[in-house]
Specification:
The protein is α+β, with helices and mostly antiparallel strands. The chain is built from 13 helices and ten strands. A hairpin with a 5-residue loop joins strand 1 and strand 2.
């Protein structure tokens, strides 16, 4: 039985208890609740808090709960999305330097779907928009922020002992290939008409390939990877000259190739023409910061090659997730855009050579 509320049963008393557990001595007497964000598997609610006279605390907090959609809830359990996010906040957040929201509370029943996370409200920072894309300054800030995730976990063998991060028994199987090919026909039927012929072809080629970066088991160079590092999962503060990025939605975190996060973000987040002009400079800046953070034995040619391989990282999320979560109008636009941009990215960088 859960020792926490659902989104419908959150109370001032529970919020007060959570704040007190976080050394905030304030009594919540009331609140208003409003849905925020565009999550496909989880739903987020902003609670604007009212306090007892003389008390003070955060003006608002964000609660995250499982989706109301049964298919999305089932997907969240199957892919361990709910478990991973709760575990991230409870076990990993404090060991990393990547900017993340303060977590007031995180708990789950088993592997879900029942869970709750209560976290800092990052307003006035605003959620990025996957459909609109971003400018070069935001793209650079987002990629450089990844060093705070990758460098502290770079080739850390102790992380392999965490079963929720790395399933050694499944690592050498065809699980990803099987899931990709199972969803590929439906994906191409639904989204294929919006794609060019060469974009459809390379998406299909990944399914046909015996060997693909998408199917790689854990390599010698590995780190914690966000997996779904895109604009919709970033809160962006542009109030200063340099944009600041805070990363949310840790429901896919795993061990993998760190440049997958970099390629996934730039491929999905920048418009193709702009990305072509700016990506090498941004990846070089990431590599320089990674080196300054203490990562050794990872030279620039190796980094760039890993980046090119990483162009396929978005194919799995796009093809598989699009067919397993609740279908929405914005979701269709998002998955179409992601398919176009990831496919074009792989084509632009000649990454088909890695499909054999």
């Amino acid at each position: 039985m859960a020792n926490f509320p659902t989104s419908e049963t959150v109370s001032p008393q529970w919020l007060t208890a959570v704040l007190k557990d976080n050394q905030i001595d304030a009594t919540v007497t009331d609140f208003t609740a409003q849905a925020v964000g565009t999550g496909q598997i989880g739903k987020c609610i902003r609670y604007v808090l009212t306090y007892a006279e003389g008390d003070s605390g955060p003006a608002s907090v964000i609660g995250k709960f499982p989706s109301d959609d049964p298919n999305s809830r089932a997907t969240g359990v199957m892919l361990q999305n709910f478990l991973k996010e709760v575990k991230f906040y409870k076990q990993l957040q404090g060991k990393l330097s990547i900017r993340t929201p303060h977590c007031f509370f995180a708990d789950i029943v088993g592997e879900g779907p029942d869970f709750v996370i209560l976290m800092e409200d990052l307003a006035p920072a605003q959620q990025g928009d996957q459909l609109l894309g971003c400018d070069t300054d935001v793209a650079r800030a987002a990629v450089l922020e990844l060093v705070g995730l990758h460098a502290p976990s770079w080739c850390d063998d102790s992380l392999k002992q965490e079963g929720w991060l790395h399933n050694a028994e499944a690592a050498g199987t065809d699980v990803i290939r099987t899931m990709y090919n199972a969803q590929l026909p439906g994906f191409l039927e639904r989204y294929g008409p919006a794609l060019s012929a060469d974009e459809q072809a390379i998406i299909a080629q990944v399914g046909e390939a015996h060997s693909s970066p998408l199917y790689d088991s854990l390599q010698d160079v590995f780190a914690l990877v966000h997996v779904d590092y895109r604009l919709d999962n970033l809160m962006i503060d542009t109030s200063d000259h340099d944009p600041k990025v805070t990363v949310v939605d840790w429901q896919s975190i795993t061990l993998g190739a760190p440049l997958n996060d970099v390629a996934y973000f730039l491929g999905a987040g920048m418009l193709p023409a702009q990305r072509q002009q700016e990506e090498e400079a941004i990846v070089r800046a990431y590599h320089e910061k990674l080196t300054l953070a203490g990562v050794k034995g990872f030279d620039w040619p190796t980094c760039w090659n890993a980046y090119r391989r990483g162009t396929f990282a978005g194919f799995g999320v796009t093809v598989v997730a699009s067919m397993l979560v609740q279908r929405t109008e914005r979701g269709d636009k998002m998955f179409t855009t992601m398919a176009q941009r990831h496919a074009r990215h792989a084509i632009d960088l000649g990454a088909a050579e890695f499909l054999v």
